[in-house]
Amino acid sequence: MAAISSGNKNRLRKSALSERLSLKEEFVEGNSIKISNQLLNNFSLLKKNVHLFYPISKNKEVNTWHIHKSINSNSTIYTSVYEKSKDKWQCVSFNPFVKFTKGKLDIPIPMDYRLETFDKIEIILIPLLVFDKFGNRVGYGKGIYDTILNQLNKNCLKIGLSFFEVSKENIQVDFHDQSLDYCQTPNKLYKF
Predict the structure, then answer these.
(1) pLDDT tens-digit profile of 24-40?
(2) Mapping DSSP to helix (H, G, I), strand (E, B) and coil, where does residue 15 land?
(3) Do the Cβ atoms of 21 and 152 come closer than 8 Å?
(4) What value does the CA radius of gyration of the chain take, rounded to a whole number of Å?
(5) Phi, psi (degrees; rounded to nearest 5) at 7
(6) How far is it, in rounded angstroms, from Cα 53 to Cα 31?
(7) Average confidence score pLDDT of the chain
(8) % of the chain residues with pLDDT over 90
(9) Residue pair 137/160 in contact by the 8 Å Cβ criterion
(10) Cα→Cα distances 78→102, 149, 164, 192, Å
């Protein structure tokens, strides 16, 4: 299901994606490590139910494999996989040492997993393109994370990961949009 983007989202999305795709691999990797280290210093992820996104390499997303490796034996790791028969994204847990393959949209997914429910998640890490000072975010415009975030329990921490600092422009929100609690960049943790 595609989300309907209004206001300034399409312009912000296009600009941020263009900027991110122009990043050099060294920048992506070096800043992914900084984001991972900062996140692990700012939050206790051990013994938690943590929902990770896994990076789509061609989109130069934050490499969350560093976080995966840091918490893999001390936390329960969850992610989302697209269930074609149900035409929706499902919450899954998995052995952190399982092999991964590429799923829908080239998203890395575990080859073996157990179906779970999103309400078990205590911390969710969220990919994004842009965020503002209120914790509003812009993703790819498909509405995937808005759907997922609506299924979380009310105490779940929603943490965005971004190579870029906060936008100077406020994002115009739609009724279905879910804001972040925090956003971790290479240099700063933003709290909303």
Answers:
(1) 999 999 999 999 999 99
(2) helix
(3) no
(4) 16
(5) 60, -130
(6) 17
(7) 94
(8) 84
(9) yes
(10) 16, 14, 25, 24
